[in-house]
Specification:
Radius of gyration: 17 Å
Order of helices and strands: HHHHHHHHHHHH
Mean pLDDT: 85
Low-confidence stretches: 86-90, 204-211
Structural class: mainly alpha
Length: 211
């Protein structure tokens, strides 16, 4: 199969015009909005890589199928309007996509989503609500190229996991300095992404057994 540069493909879905529109709609500066997206895209891909290796790709196939069939990447600017208004009256496809994205984010980040929103907010100096809105636009942009690639090449969970691992070094390299991805994901170093290392503190009872 043709190879895919997943980061480059994601960035292409976020043209300057969309970034300007996003910044205006959220009342944030364009510089900070761009910064937020610069943190969000590799964070989403790193989160996906991390989930894929820890859960044997479970759920990732379904996630990518939903992303692909949603057509979300064609509706990013419409979604911006509905993210902003987020009234129940938002009808049409972009309303449906907006309703799906929180589920996609949960698949990628599990319970760590709030940490990621905080990390984007701190790194890019944007409001928490803006970080959340920017993450919702970054999510379809980050996931669509992979979703289409997986479909075109008929990839199973193991192949998707292998592919994500093949992109690991570029994903890690794209995480901007000063963006607290490791703390947000609860790991010690960026190299731990996509490994099965779980950095939960051992319980006191385990210490006693080691004596």
């Amino acid at each position: 199969p043709m190879s895919l540069d997943i980061l480059e493909a994601s960035r292409r879905l976020l043209p300057d015009s969309l970034i300007t529109k996003t910044a205006m709609s959220l009342g944030e500066s364009e510089v900070n909005t761009r910064k937020a997206l610069k943190g969000a895209i590799p964070a989403i891909l790193a989160g996906l890589l991390h989930q894929s290796s820890r859960r044997e790709g479970l759920g990732i196939i379904d996630l990518l199928k939903t992303v692909d069939s949603s057509g979300a990447s064609n509706n990013l600017s419409d979604m911006l309007e509905s993210t902003k208004n987020s009234s129940p009256a938002t009808t049409g496809q972009e309303g449906d996509i907006n309703a799906m994205i929180p589920g996609w984010l949960k698949s990628v980040f599990d319970g760590k989503l709030i940490n990621i929103i905080n990390a984007i907010s701190v790194y890019a100096d944007v409001k928490s609500s803006s970080a959340n809105a920017i993450l919702k636009i970054a999510t379809p942009a980050a996931l669509t190229p992979l979703a289409q690639y997986a479909k075109e090449n008929n990839m199973g969970a193991a192949e998707i996991d292998t592919f994500l691992h093949s992109q690991k070094s570029s994903i890690i390299a794209a995480v901007p300095a000063g963006f607290n991805l490791t703390g947000s994901l609860g790991i010690n170093s960026l190299e731990d992404i996509g490994t099965k290392i779980v950095t939960t503190q051992p319980k006191p009872s385990e210490y006693q057994q080691r004596k």
